[in-house]
Amino acid sequence: MVEYLLTTLTLVTVFAGMFGFLQGQLRNLFQIAGMKILTPYF
Questions:
Q1: What is the tens place of the pLDDT at every residue in 12-36?
Q2: What is the pLDDT of residue 42?
Q3: pTM for the whole structure
Q4: 22 Cβ neighbours under 8 A, 6+ residues apart
Q5: Half-sphere exposure of 9 (CA within 13 A, CB side)
Q6: Cα–chain center distance at 36
Q7: Which residue of 2, 12, 26, 30 has the fewest C-beta atoms within 10 A of its own C-beta?
Q8: How far is the C-alpha of 17 from the C-alpha of 42, rounded, in Å?
Q9: 40: DSSP letter
């Protein structure tokens, strides 16, 4: 029972950390892509 709870907690923590990291990376990629797309028009 304890091992199951610890494993679940560890997986949830890892996925939450990965999701936060990927969300930050995606925001940066969208900003860079937006600047590259909009730069020729100005």
A1: 999 988 888 888 888 899 999 988 8
A2: 67
A3: 0.51
A4: none
A5: 6
A6: 22
A7: 2
A8: 38
A9: G
